[in-house]
Design brief:
mainly alpha, Rab-GAP-TBC_dom, TBC1 domain family member 22B isoform X2, 14-3-3 protein binding, Cyclin A, domain 1, GTPase activator activity, Rab-GAP_TBC_sf, Helicase, Ruva Protein, domain 3, 445 residues
Length: 445
């Protein structure tokens, strides 16, 4: 309505700027608006007045000559002094002002629009969501703290799924997430596993097939054909989906702790001697899929260990050498004296995460802490290796030849180790990390 009034007003007034305007002077002062109507009504009488006196009729002559400047109908309808015209003016002015203010407000608010996209969300929902997220974060941190000194066997499967990031912290999403991820894994099997016999995948599959029987050869569980088939599928699918590294010897060891932990969810007896053919097909499928995804999560953090030339391992071995030279110079110089290179014994420590140096039960306990510690399998593992090496300080210094040192370092006597020894090892590793992690030049000689 305001737009129509504005348009009508300016249309009606369009004649005014280009028309002849009245000239006011001493003899012709401005007319009183109140006389305008009377003057217009009497204009028709002007033509009948005889022009006897030129001076007296000059104004009337002027009026006749400029009569085209004024539309009588408009003047009669739009008396500028009338209340109706004043009302129209005020309406148009208010409407125009309101429109201008609205346009300017839009220009001002527009850049900040993205910052207030959640303004439509009820405040109560924001508070609840924020509180829920904060609670989940607190719960996750609390779970890590509780898991650092070891996780009870009964809750280890679900705890590992949570700590690895495979299982969401939100309990409402867990069932659907597990179902979706398990279906996704077996979708990979259908899509890729038949290609293992293709020429460009034969080398990968052959190496996997050779390495699997070597995985924990002293544990009967891993010599069962059904278990070896599961491992073959897990490792082949992972290699196909990670072409940057593909399969590398040593990755096969990383499946075993997850497989044993998730198997223990269905088995109360000794897992290492359990016959998996006693489990249902659904149970085996769940164990296989969960082992694949958790192993994948682990490898995501250390994948540079297995890319071409294994630069991650090279870097970690060098870091171990530097760290040992700072914490125990005597051991470091002993290696140098007998020309023992750290790469000759520590490469396996990094490649297999000490799994070849420790019993499986100790590896599982160690991984409780690794998954609780930020960058546990990469950064914290370095300090565990340093603590592990210094643990054998006396035995190392007693060996006085190259061959004796390598034989010792590749066959350390840990067969009888348990949770107590792992706990002491982790405590020493934490102490070293506290001293050196944030002070790379500390104690540098």
């Amino acid at each position: 309505m305001a737009a129509e009034n504005s348009k009508q007003f300016w249309k009606r007034s369009a004649k005014l700027p280009g028309s002849i305007q009245p000239v006011y002077g001493a003899q012709h002062p401005p007319l009183d608006p109140r006389l305008t109507k009377n003057f217009i009504k009497e204009r028709s009488k002007v033509n009948t007045v005889p022009l006897k006196n030129k001076k007296a009729s000059s104004f009337h002559e002027f009026a006749r000559n400029t009569s085209d400047a004024w539309d009588i109908g408009d003047d009669e309808e739009e008396d500028f002094s009338s209340p109706s015209f004043q009302t129209l003016n005020s309406k148009v002015a208010l409407a125009t002002a309101a429109q201008v203010l609205e346009n300017h407000s839009k220009l001002r608010v527009k850049p900040e629009r993205s910052q207030s996209t959640t303004s439509d969300v009820p405040a109560s929902y924001k508070v609840i969501k924020s509180s829920s997220d904060a609670q989940l974060s607190r719960n996750s941190n609390e779970l890590r703290k509780c898991s650092w000194p070891g996780v009870p066997r009964e809750v280890r499967p679900v705890t590992w799924r949570l700590l690895s990031g495979y299982l969401p912290a939100n309990t409402e999403r867990r069932k659907l997430t597990l179902q979706r991820k398990r279906e996704e894994y077996f979708g990979f099997i259908e899509q890729y596993y038949d290609s293992r016999n293709e020429e460009h995948h034969q080398d990968t599959y052959r190496q996997i097939h050779i390495d699997i029987p070597r995985t924990n050869p002293l544990i009967p569980l891993f010599q069962q054909p059904l278990v070896q088939e599961i491992f073959e599928r897990i490792l082949f699918i992972w290699a196909i989906r990670h072409p940057a590294s593909g399969y590398v010897q040593g990755i096969n060891d990383l499946v075993t702790p997850f497989f044993v932990v998730f198997l223990s969810e269905y088995v109360e007896e000794d897992v290492e001697n359990f016959d998996v053919t006693n489990l249902s097909q659904d149970m085996l499928r769940s164990i296989e899929a969960d082992s694949f995804w958790c192993m994948s999560k682990l490898l995501d953090g250390i994948q540079d260990n297995y890319t071409f030339a294994q630069p991650g391992i090279q870097k970690k071995v060098k870091a171990l050498e530097e760290l040992v030279s700072r914490i125990d110079e005597q051991v470091h110089n002993h290696f140098r004296r007998y020309e023992v290179e750290y790469l000759q014994f520590a490469f396996r420590w990094m490649n297999n995460l000490l799994m070849r140096e420790l019993p499986l039960r100790c590896t599982i306990r160690l991984w409780d802490t690794y998954q609780s510690e930020p960058e546990g399998f990469s950064h914290f593992h370095l300090y565990v290796c340093a603590a592990f090496l210094i643990k054998w300080r006396k035995e190392i210094l007693d060996e006085e030849d190259f061959q004796g040192l390598l034989m010792l370092l590749q066959n350390l006597p840990t067969i009888h180790w348990g949770n107590e020894e792992i706990g002491l090892l982790l405590a020493e590793a934490y102490r070293l990390k506290y001293m050196f992690a944030d002070a790379p030049n500390h104690y540098r000689r």
